[in-house]
Write a structure and sequence with these properties.
Blueprint lengths: L5 H15 L5 H11 L5 H16 L1 H8 L8 H14 L15 H8 L5 H4 L4 H11 L2 H9 L6 E4 L6 H12 L3 E4 L2 E7 L9 H4 L3 E3 L2 H9 L7 E4 L6 H9 L5 E5 L3 H13 L5 E5 L3 H6 L4 E7 L14 H4 L2 H18 L3 E11 L8 H8 L7 E9 L1 H4 L4 E8 L4
Length: 407
């Protein structure tokens, strides 16, 4: 970007206003902004997305540079953050009324100042303290890695196409370069970011867009064709569909979630992916859940969590989280563990996963569960810690537990 146009600047400020003041989800807010500006070209849309996410990601640091109160109580402060982003990125500051009080020299001087980790990494004080307490020396590296934009990763749907063939078709038909990632057998990394939701290969179910470490979770479940599997917190079904692909569409998958709209989305995606082994996908009443006792070879609990491991793609989360909200998900995770562990048959396996990097949501929960009456029937087989600063992808945790034959 060489210069900022007025209409795209207004789009950025409108998006920030909806995200910070109305607590909108950034992806949905930006989709609406795009629809409201049909004359924008691809470059305009990309610029609005890029700048909006950068300002969300570095909000507190830009507030420090510009001398702005980080509570962001009014729209003029959002314009000031936008102007600060322009200065930081050496882009010409337009001669607009909204930018008249921006002190370029002061911003440049503040860039040279030594500041605390909370400011330099743009993280709320309470969250920085919690992260240091739970991850100790890993925290600084992890939060720094999570402040970089997520890479665009595809997950190949082997029910429809092989990884090699998909890579070749993307290149031959659409001039899209993608490369394999060592250690991630179904993943393709795109060299350039593109909107692929309308690509014919996507519409035919050849691939899903899914973070590389997220793809590790379904593999960690160790499913095989013909198994009985329950995805107890399926959401819109990203991992459910991957399980179906790994099972080669043979076996039985039950996908449950408390949000009906997510189950509806899963059903749509399953049809597009040509997935036929999902036999039930619904909320599930108490009587039905009781019928699942000791039924499954595998139960995946992709648990509700803080989502801290996804800050690369959801940077607004760090400004919306609270101590109370984390305590609430910890309570909910324990409730789900106690309920869904009952569905594992003797010799079967329970897999607990989160997209958080906090020990209190991860290994501490597993230790808590193993100390409960229901947990006494299980033994831990393996844990996986997937950190952003080590992999370059989202942060995840997974634990695989085996139900003892005598339990």
């Amino acid at each position: 970007m060489k210069r900022l146009h007025r209409n795209t600047a207004q789009g950025i400020v409108d998006a920030l206003s909806n995200i910070f003041y109305k607590f909108g989800k950034a992806t949905r807010v930006l989709e609406k902004i795009n629809l409201a500006n049909p004359k924008w070209g691809a470059r305009d849309r990309n610029n609005v997305h890029l700048v909006t996410y950068e300002i969300i990601r570095w909000k507190d640091y830009y507030c420090f540079l510009s001398g702005t109160d980080n509570n962001l109580t009014d729209v003029p402060k959002l314009w000031k953050l936008l102007g600060t982003w322009l200065v930081v990125n050496s882009i010409e500051l337009p001669n607009w009324e909204e930018f008249t009080d921006i002190d370029v020299k002061q911003i440049q001087a503040n860039q040279k100042e030594k500041v605390t980790s909370e400011i330099s990494k743009s993280i709320p004080n309470w969250l920085h303290e919690r992260g240091e307490k739970e991850l100790s020396e890993k925290w600084d590296d992890e939060i720094e890695a999570l402040n970089f934009q997520a890479k665009l990763i595809l997950r190949v749907n082997r029910i429809v196409i092989s990884p090699k063939k998909l890579q070749q078709e993307l290149l031959d038909k659409y001039q899209i370069e993608a490369e394999f990632i060592k250690g991630y057998e179904d993943a393709l990394l795109l060299q350039k970011r593109k909107n692929l939701r309308k690509n014919p290969l996507y519409l035919k179910g050849c691939f899903e867009i899914q973070d590389a470490n997220s793809q590790k979770i379904a593999s960690f479940v160790e499913v095989k064709p013909g198994m009985k599997v329950i995805d107890g917190c399926a959401g819109a079904g990203g991992k459910t569909l991957h399980l179906a692909s790994l099972m080669r569409n043979r076996g039985e998958i039950i996908a449950l979630d408390i949000e009906k709209n997510k189950i509806k989305e899963l059903s749509k995606r399953a049809r597009r992916n040509n997935v036929k082994c999902i036999t039930k996908s619904w909320v599930g009443d108490a009587e039905y859940k009781k019928s699942l006792t000791r039924w499954a070879d595998r139960v995946l609990i992709d648990a509700p969590c803080s989502g801290l491991g996804t800050l690369k793609r959801n940077p607004e989360l760090k400004w919306k989280l609270t101590h109370e909200s984390i305590l609430e998900v910890i309570r909910l995770q324990r409730e789900i563990l106690l309920e869904q562990s009952k569905w594992v048959k003797e010799g079967g396996k329970l897999i607990y996963a989160t997209c958080s990097v906090l020990a209190s949501e991860n290994q501490s929960q597993i230790q808590w569960f193993l100390n409960q009456d229901e947990g006494a029937y299980f033994s831990i087989e393996k844990e996986e810690f997937l950190y952003a600063h080590k992999t370059g992808f989202d942060g995840f945790y997974a634990a695989r537990l085996v139900r003892n034959v005598c339990g």
